Amino acid sequence: MEFHRVARSGQVPEGYVRRFYVNELECAVARLNGKAYATSNYCTHLDCLLSSGKLVDDGLGCSCHGSVFDLETGAPVYPPATEPIQVYPVREENGEVFVGVSEADVKSGGPRRRKPTAG
């Protein structure tokens, strides 16, 4: 796993979620109670952008249908989502936010919107 700089700490203010990229990997980076978190950017329910959602006491809320995900584990806290989102480790050093991802995460681009099915 390698940590990649994604933002300045000030670009992720308390209570906000923002979209950032590690190469092709799209992440939602949030700050709650002073701590920065990074997750995949698509809800596992219907692929809505989590970076368009809101932080709530229990975690990251999806703006489309109200699913909430735990920022530490990615587990769904409130439905309709039943599948977890991917979480990535975060470090902050010298006013910079770094997200830890594996080479496989970056190559795959991480969880993305579903592709239409044939037929």
Describe this structure in words.
The chain is mainly beta. The chain has one domain: Rieske Iron-sulfur Protein (3-layer Sandwich), CATH 2.102.10.10. The chain is built from 1 helix and 11 strands, in the order E-E-E-E-E-E-E-E-E-E-E-H. It has a 4-stranded antiparallel sheet with strand order 2-3-4-9. The radius of gyration is 14 Å and the shape is globular. The mean pLDDT is 90. Keywords: 2Fe-2S, Iron, Iron-sulfur, Metal-binding. One of its GO terms (molecular function) is metal ion binding. This is (2Fe-2S)-binding protein.
What can be said about the biggest beta sheet?
Answer: 4 strands, antiparallel
**CATH third-tier fold name:** Rieske Iron-sulfur Protein
Query: Whole-Å distance between the termini?
Result: 39 Å
- Second CATH tier, the architecture: 3-layer Sandwich
Computed over alpha carbons, the radius of gyration is: 14 Å
Superfamily (CATH H level) name: Rieske [2Fe-2S] iron-sulphur domain
Q: How many individual β-strands?
A: 11
Q: Which class do the helix and strand fractions yield?
A: mainly beta
Shape: globular
Pfam family, one: Rieske
Organism: Aeromicrobium chenweiae
InterPro entries: Rieske_2Fe-2S (IPR017941), Rieske_2Fe-2S_sf (IPR036922)
Protein name: (2Fe-2S)-binding protein
